[in-house]
Design a protein that fits this description.
686 residues; alpha/beta; Rossmann fold; 6-stranded mixed beta sheet; 31 helices
Length: 686
């Protein structure tokens, strides 16, 4: 009893409790902050090991030493009547209580964060699986695409089984091989009960594929198999793995599903390699100035693939997507580009006229190529019957409803798509964009924050997140800091954000930074939004105008006009391209032609036809009117632009307050009233 009483007197119990609270607090903090710095898993393991080793040391220290006003001395050297262990104990209790409150707060924060980014455990079905990227064990680097293709085909085969829930490739791409995987955490993040891992080794005309099925809750290996065969048998291997997994998960497999799984995507391995590379490029499309380059390269690869195998159904489906995006994003809004998409659609229809993928492909063609929203929605309804839980169906439905001005319904469909594809950060980015168009800035910021938990180093997303404060609060500091951080970390990554850097420099009236941003565009890319692209030459003219260098401005705008004329020759009915010409003519003093071009752009693409880009046509026409001295018309158009279904960046509080586009209207009471109406309301949710 004397021993335990002495333990109490020397505060050993209180030190033990305090140490436990400090350790808990340290672990909670590390679990939050270490991922933000991309720390490998072993760092957390070392932290825990240090805390475990430190526990007995702390107890031994509290037994052997005492803290006195003169410093730390051995307990045996302190006279009993002068000991202050009682006072030290009270301080320990107070400190422990404070630390416990902090630790509890961090625990609650971590719990809420995990709940917000991971599907509920209650929703996880036993017949759910994610196929993680396979490791490339081949010596040749280019075979990495081959390994990606093998993984993707197994995933595609499993997705054909209606009785299974299969996470799409986009959501699993981030868990690439070569990175230490926490399988239980991945299972929670993806909301699945099972994971499939594997490796591919290709040597000459042989291929070895290893696959293993894992219980995501326990890390237990449920099934494993190694296939060592001729390279020509790789598609048979993929089908066998898919059927074996279906059997392990006790999934019902209909005769049609079995036949679909056994049908190889192509018999030409060279075509399969080209297709795999192109599909990876298309999955990388996001908010970036390099999207045009990636789309162009993907189309070239797919053209080569179908030339090698004219019956390659999946390659034609990807061609429809690629040509459609190229056309709709105004990289090439020409009849020839649309004809290429139509040719791919004809091939798809010829090969599998009744497939769900064919209906989805036709919906994509009607949406991207003709803005035939009713027809596209009808095709999606057909596709939904066989692609019951395909996130692409809800994703495209969301895009169509957004263009039709049915923004709230669009948001609901995109949210559903994210539920089905929980780590697809491109759809999350699009959902964030929908929040922006509705001026729901808090939800937009939260969605970008969620994306950054998945891809913390993604440059376009980091910039888009910082942009929220710019157009919501007219605060350029977060955007400025983000650009500076990217420049410091990896200057080679800045072209992906050069357009936004230029916007920030204009808002801050910093010509030096603006010139650097234009240089980063490398005179080959463009900046803008909503399918309206302004060339680097236009940017040079705008910057020269801001700095009162009229000679340079005139030369730059002349060059921009020549470039735009060529675009319009290929795309004579493009509203966005004509609107850009109107901006250039307005900048050059061609008042009448600029106003005619601006009005005609609105006629070519009215809000009723496209609520997003149509809204932008109205908003940019307000700039044309302002630049030509038509202030009354400019204010009227701006009022219409503010009430338009979609909020463009130029017609936000930050855009109106800071960007030089609106300088001709500054000081006009009507303009200032519009700016004030968009200012964030204190204490109110946007």
């Amino acid at each position: 009893m004397n021993f335990f009483a002495e333990l109490k007197r020397r505060n050993v119990y209180k030190v033990a409790v305090a140490y436990a609270v400090v350790a808990w607090l340290t672990i909670q903090a590390a679990s939050i902050f270490l991922p933000a710095f991309n720390a490998p898993p072993w760092v957390m393991q070392i932290v825990i090991l240090i805390l475990v080793v430190g526990f007995p040391i702390a107890l031994a220290f509290s037994w052997a030493f005492e803290i006195t006003p003169e410093g730390i001395v051995r307990e045996s050297e302190v006279q009993t009547d002068k000991s202050i262990t009682h006072h030290t104990g009270r301080k320990l209790v107070a400190i422990t209580a404070v630390l416990a409150v902090i630790a509890t707060g961090l625990f609650v924060f971590q719990f809420i964060r995990v709940r917000s980014t991971s599907p509920s455990a209650a929703t996880v079905t036993n017949k759910s699986i994610a196929v993680l990227p396979f490791e490339n064990l081949s010596e040749e680097k280019q075979n990495e695409y081959f390994a990606d293709g093998v993984q993707d085909e197994i995933l595609t085969d499993l997705a054909k089984i209606a009785d299974l829930k299969v996470i799409s490739r986009t959501s699993v791409m981030q868990y690439r091989s070569g990175v230490v995987r926490n399988l239980r955490e991945i299972g929670q993040q993806l909301g699945v009960a099972h994971l499939l891992e594997g490796s591919v080794q290709r040597v000459a005309n042989r291929v070895r594929v290893n696959a293993q099925l894992i219980d995501a809750k326990t890390d237990a290996h449920l099934w494993a198999q190694t296939y060592d065969r001729d390279l020509a048998d790789v598609f048979a291997i993929q089908s066998e793995i898919a059927k074996a997994i279906a059997d392990q998960l006790q999934a019902r497999l209909s005769p049609n599903e079995k036949a679909a799984i056994e049908k190889p995507p192509t018999t030409n391995l060279a075509a399969f390699d080209l297709y795999s590379r192109a599909k990876t490029l298309l999955l990388s499309i996001g908010f970036s100035t390099i999207d045009e380059k990636n789309l162009r390269e993907a189309i070239e690869l797919l053209d080569q693939a179908v030339a090698l195998d004219p019956a390659f159904f999946e390659a034609y489906c990807q061609l429809i997507i690629a040509h459609g995006k190229f056309y709709s994003l105004n990289y090439d809004h020409s009849v020839g580009r649309l004809a290429s998409a139509e040719a791919a659609l004809q091939a798809v229809t010829r090969l599998r006229p009744d497939a769900g993928e064919t209906h989805l492909a036709r919906a994509q063609y009607l949406y991207y190529g003709h803005r035939d929203y009713s027809g596209a929605l009808a095709e999606l309804e057909q596709a939904r019957r066989s692609l019951t839980n395909d996130p692409r169906v809800f994703e495209l439905t969301g895009y169509i409803l957004r263009r039709r001005g049915q923004s709230d319904e669009a948001v609901r469909n995109l949210e559903r798509s994210v539920e089905l594809d929980p780590r697809n950060y491109f759809i999350m980015q699009q959902l964030a964009l929908s929040y922006q168009l509705l001026r729901r800035y808090q939800e937009e910021a939260a969605m970008y924050d969620r994306v950054l938990t998945i891809v913390p180093k993604d440059v376009p997303t980091r910039v888009q997140r910082a942009l929220v404060d710019f157009y919501w609060k007219a605060d350029t500091k977060p955007l400025h800091d983000a650009i500076d951080s990217i420049l410091a970390e990896d200057p080679s990554a800045i072209p992906a954000a050069a357009d936004t850097w230029f916007l920030c420099a204009l808002a801050e009236r910093d010509p030096t930074a603006a010139k650097r941003a234009l240089a980063a565009l490398n005179h080959t890319a463009a900046f803008g939004e909503g399918g309206v692209y302004l060339s680097a030459s236009f940017g040079e003219g705008l910057l020269a105008r801001v700095t009162k260098d009229e000679g340079s401005a005139r030369d730059a705008f002349n060059k921009a006009r020549l470039e735009q004329d060529k675009i319009l020759q290929a795309q004579p009915d493009s509203g966005p391209a004509l609107c850009v010409l109107g901006l250039i003519d307005a900048a050059m003093g061609g008042k009448e032609s600029a106003l005619v071009e601006g009005r005609h752009a609105i006629e070519l693409l009215p809000v009723e036809k496209d609520s997003v880009t149509g809204s932008l046509m109205i908003q940019l026409f307000a700039i044309i009117a302002a630049w030509t001295g038509e202030k009354d018309l400019a204010v009227h158009q701006l009022e219409l632009g503010v009430r338009a279904p979609a909020a463009g960046i130029v017609v936000t509080y930050g855009g109106l307050k800071l960007l030089p586009f609106w300088d001709p209207l500054r000081g006009d009471p009507r303009f200032e009233k519009i700016v004030a109406s968009l200012a964030p309301k204190t204490g109110a949710k946007p």
